[in-house]
Amino acid sequence: MLHTLIQSPYKTNIPLLISMLKKQDDFLALQDGVLIALTNNFFLDSIIFSSANLYLIKDDVYARGIINNISSDFTLISYFHFVSLTLKNKTQMTW
């Protein structure tokens, strides 16, 4: 399953999201959702511990000027790769 986080993690039920993540799932943060990858983020350890595949949209990270403050546990991807994730995952959940 592909889980996409679009809004700030502080406006989302992140504990519920994390409880639903499975090891084989893909998690993608875009727009304000990329804030979840900030190194001092309250939710960071929990999302990393989920063992899901963690992705961020590179353009959104750069647009917010946070490239030097994100966790290395996330993979930066393009919107093209985002499309590949949607094709790979037949089921999706948007947060």
Automatic annotation (TrEMBL):
Signal peptide: none annotated. The keyword tRNA processing applies. It is found in: Cytoplasm. Pfam families: DsrH (PF04077). GO terms for cellular component: sulfurtransferase complex. GO terms for biological process: tRNA wobble position uridine thiolation. It comes from the Bacteria. Keywords: Cytoplasm, Transferase, tRNA processing. Its main location: cytoplasm. GO terms for molecular function: transferase activity. Part of a sulfur-relay system required for 2-thiolation of 5-methylaminomethyl-2-thiouridine (mnm(5)s(2)U) at tRNA wobble positions. Heterohexamer, formed by a dimer of trimers. The hexameric TusBCD complex contains 2 copies each of TusB, TusC and TusD. The TusBCD complex interacts with TusE. PANTHER family: PROTEIN TUSB (PTHR37526). This is Protein TusB. The gene is tusB.
